[in-house]
Amino acid sequence: MSLTVTDVLALPGLESMRLRAGSAGLDNAVRWPYVAENSGIAEWVLGGELVFVTGINHPRDEANLLQLLEEACQRQVAGLVILTGPAYIQIIPQRLLDAAEAAGMPLIEQPYSLKMVLVTQAIGSALIQAEQLGRSRHDVLERLLTGDYQSLDLLLHRAAQLGMPLAGRWQVVQLQLEGGEALFDQDDTAQVEAQLARQHEAITRRLRQFSASIPVVGRAGQWTLLLPATDAGAALANRQQLATWLNPLNLRLAPLKLFIGLSAAAHPPARLAQAQDEARQALAAARRFSERAGLCVYDELGVLKLLSGVRDRALLDQFLNERLGPLLRHDLHHGPSLMPTLEAWFHENGNLMAAAQRLAVHRNTLTHRVQRIEALCGLTLDNAYDRLDIGIALMIWRLSA
């Protein structure tokens, strides 16, 4: 559980600190307080700090304060606190307030009469308490999601004590961010890691807004989220809400891409482990089947539910090899042509013209490839049972790609 700028302003003893601008960033997570001693802060912050500007060791005119605000936005600090009084910074310039408001950067005024030692002590203690509470809440949630508990009643009682109302019906959401490898090919490691950290923080912050009362479990580009879903209607609303957020987000993230899998609806706490497994299966389909536009619900899986239920992977590999092995070996040695052709033909329901357009090849080329596929595999594409086998084999291939 993180400490936000709003939480800091509500701490006992800090009532004289007041927000002057940038209310849009009140939910920014505060990682630690930092007192700015130099003319700039870009080299001295990592992101998430609440930066205190005193003017004691460096003169702070309007130009310098605007520079600090610009660097604070670039480094994604949690907020700026300007100490005001008769000795150093008498007033906060209006241009600075306007710029902070436009940037959504919280800008707080603190009187010099409020001692910094009291402020940093209050924030430090709150950060420690928030960290301990966050770990306890994550531990409870992870135990429910893995089924690692002896008494469900005791675990739910602990959850209630921690402010987690879990006695309801839920839908589990699994998210995964991919494509970081492409970034490392373009830029140096430090820049890429900083960019990924910013993206992770932004996604985590948005996910917290989806489920304010239940913590988001996340690490290394993977997140797990619980959403209330008492029935199919609520689950559909969750799906629509996530899709509305996901589609424009992925346009901005490119070459990164976020994928989402959702479980079925109405899982009680006792079935959250099952719900997480459903969400993982849906996530795998969202990642492997581009037509799902990066999002899939467990109820939409169809026959993939059966394939996902086969625990012996060797059986699936054997089926794939028996049906499409010759095509896989051909493409391995001669480049991908037959498998993409078969997939396009199947996707277009046997329409040769549409499949040729999908692959950007001449229809005669496609016809020749289809004949080659039938000859190599011993399958007839006009035969209903062969088409069924092909469809299942293609799903296995996509899941294992």
From TrEMBL:
Residues 7-126 form the Purine catabolism PurC-like domain. This is CdaR family transcriptional regulator. Residues 153-284 form the CdaR GGDEF-like domain. InterPro entries: CdaR-like_regulators, CdaR_GGDEF, PucR_C-HTH_dom, PucR_C-HTH_sf, PucR_dom. It holds the Pfam family PucR. Belongs to the CdaR family. Transmembrane segments: none annotated. It comes from the Bacteria. Residues 338-395 form the PucR C-terminal helix-turn-helix domain.
